[in-house]
Structures are given as structure tokens and as C-alpha cells.
Amino acid sequence: MSLFENNWNNKNNLTAISTLFLLFFLFSAFLVSCEERPAPQPSPVWGTQTVDEGFDLPTIQKAGELIALTLSGPDTYYDYQGRHLGVHYLMCEKFASSLGVRLRIEVCRDTAELLSRLADGDGDIIALRMKNDSLSAGWQVGAGKPLLEQALQEWYHPTLFAETQAKERQLLSLKKVKRRVYAPMLSKSVISHYDAHFKHYGRRIGWDWRLLAAQCYQESTFDPEARSWAGARGLMQIMPATADHLGLPRDQLNNPERSIEAATRYLKELEEQFADIHDRTERQNMVLASYNGGIHHIHDAMRLCQHDGRNPHRWADVQQYVLRLSEPRYYQDTLVHHGYMRGQETAEYVDRIRERYKKYRISAR
Q1: Which of 11, 112, 161, 346 has its CA 20 to 30 A from that of 180?
Q2: Residue 79 φ/ψ, nearest 5 degrees
Q3: Is 219 an annotated catalytic residue?
Q4: Cβ neighbour number for residue 281 with a 10 Å cutoff
Q5: Reading across the β-sheet that carries 125-126, which strands appear in turn?
């Protein structure tokens, strides 16, 4: 072997040894790094039964909102002339107030959805009797909320349900509107002190002024100081939220002309929602029903009416479904988007206005 070949082999051996040493060093460093590195922690998963305790009472109070899940129904939750009612809703409203937070209601389709959404963290509590528990009205609190559950147990007492139910009945009694009852006509040809306003603003929307007068009498018996338990005020019993929508200052709710003017604008808005009803009388009936019972409930009744092969543009047909929206088989139907309705009062509201309008047409010109 030549000297050159010998040197070449020595160099190769040194290179191999160096490479092996380097690989051994890197592998050792990797093992040490793995031993020192903490094991990865699983990320919290939103939407499981294990809910972060950070969503308990202190966080709810900091956010300023209690989210309650419930179903639509006469004892649970429903909308009535711009006011939310239902015994469980009213109790939950009191409970939220005791916590110093506002209440937000999320209406579910059935109990399966209630439980699923509670487990997913979409709500804090189910405001509905889910279990036989006299200490908490049978409500169910979301997992991981022991402080909220404790607050509920301390707040609730067994007579609360009956007390709240009695309060709701009182609200819905015949004395729900405080008003002085004036005569339906001042003389044989003069309906009220506000006839000039009815005529002026009736012309603006193309309504017979006597129909507006008949509606006004049904609302307030011509008392500009009338006030309902729900907060509606004035001749046309406009709710504060509706006044805000119409740009009517709340301090003007009892002003006769401003009340009539705002009400006619609202009637016009509602009428535009029924533009596909070509018969004017039928369209006005739908508008009057919506003014009293809420346009969403009337649309629900129209969908049910059409589904059953009846005429959704005819009030006599729709009225039957307005009445049926107080029955579970109807207000729980998938066609119904806004749940339970006290339809009897809305049906009577339209009928009484129409009957008075007939009398006014004969007497007033």
C-alpha cells in the first residue's frame, strides 16, 4: 500500500468517527430536550358537558346578562302586546334582577334542544320545570356553575310560582288599562274631540277616519291619559319601544295629535307588510290584528291557514288560526316561528272595531 493510500484511509476513518460522534451528540441533546419539555395539554373544548368554571356566577354578573333557555307556552314564555309574559319567564326575570343582571331569553323547539344547548354552553339555565324539585322550580343549571345554582336555591321559595301566577292573572285582568271611560260619541254626528286629527291623518294613509276613531275607542276610550300595565300610553296606546321606532318622543306619548299621527304611520308600515292582499278591507283587518297581537303572530296564523288549504288573505279564515295559536298542537307546529299567542283577545279586538266602525259610518259623516 502506498503512502498516499494509507493517508487516504486514515482520513476516511477520522471522518466517519467524527460523523458518528456528531450524531450521538445531537441525539443525546434531543432526548434531554424531550425530558425537559412539558407534555402538551389538551385544549379546552367548547360545547361539552365539562364547562369551564369561569362561566359561573361572577362571570355572568360581570357580563351583565343571564341567558335562559325555555319553550314557548302560556306558563313559560310568550309575547303579548309588546310585553313578554309566562310564569317561568316572570320568575326568571325576578331572579336575574336579584343577581343585578339583565335577562336574555332563547326559545327552543323542544326539550331535546334545551338540553343540547345547555350542554353546549349556549345558556346558563333552563327556565322550565325539567325535574321535580320544589327548591328551584325544577329549573336546570348548566354544568360547572355551582355558584349560580347556589344563588338560585337561596333565592327561590316554594310559594313563588303561585305568587307569580297570581300576578300575571292580575296583569291580564279587565283592568289592565287605566283609563277614564268616555262616551263613544259626543253627539249624533260628532264622534270625539279628536275628529279633526282622525280626518287629517287618515287621509295621509288612505284610511276612513271613522275606522281610526273606532280603533282609538277600543284602545283608550278617547282618554289621552290612558296607560296600560305594559307601559303603552295615550289615545292609541303606543308602547315606548314603538314610539322610539317611530321617532315619537316619550314625553309626547300623551299628546293626542302626536299619538294619532304616530299611530297612523305605524299602521301604514304594517299595511305595507300585507301588500299582497289586494282586498283593502281584508288587508286592514290583518293590520288591526297585527297592531294588537303582533305581526309575527299573524304571519304564523297565515302560514297555518295556507297549509290547511284555507285562504290566508281572508281574515275570517286567518282568525281561526289566531285562536288556535293558544293550543300546543298549533303553536308547536314547525310552521309557527313565534310560538304561543293569546289569540282570543286579538280576534275580539278586530271584531269590536269593525262593529263600532259600522255604527260610526251611519252616524258620522
Answers
A1: 346
A2: -100, 130
A3: yes
A4: 10
A5: 102-108, 65-71, 125-126, 140-141
Dist CA 308 CA 318 (whole Å): 11
DSSP states along 316-329: HHHHHHHHHTTSHH
Give CA separation, 25 vs 21, 30, 32, 293, in Å: 6, 9, 11, 81
Residue given cell 305605524 in the structure block:
266
User: Rounded to the nearest 10 degrees, how much is the dihedral formed by the CA atoms of 340, 342, 346, 348?
Assistant: 140
Pairing verdict, β 125-126 and 65-71: parallel
Q: Which amino acid is at 173?
A: S
pLDDT tens-digit profile of 284-332?
Answer: 999 999 999 999 999 999 999 999 999 999 999 999 999 999 999 999 9
Asked if residue 260 lies in contact with residue 235, where contact means CB atoms within 8 angstroms, the answer is yes
The residue length of the chain stands at: 365
Phi/psi class of residue 294: alpha, beta or left (left: φ > 0; alpha: ψ in -120 to 50)? left
Residue with cell 288599562: 177
Read out DSSP for 85-98? E-HHHHHHHHHHHH
C-alpha torsion angle, residues 107, 239, 227, 204 (rounded to 10):
-140
Q: Please write the tens of the pLDDT for every residue from 170-192.
A: 878 755 677 788 889 999 889 99
> Catalytic one among 93, 149, 219, 261?
219
Residue among 93, 223, 285 at smallest CA distance from 171: 93
- For residue 356, the number of C-alpha atoms closer than 13 Å in the C-beta half-sphere is 22
* Bridge partner list, 107: 70
pTM above threshold 0.70: yes
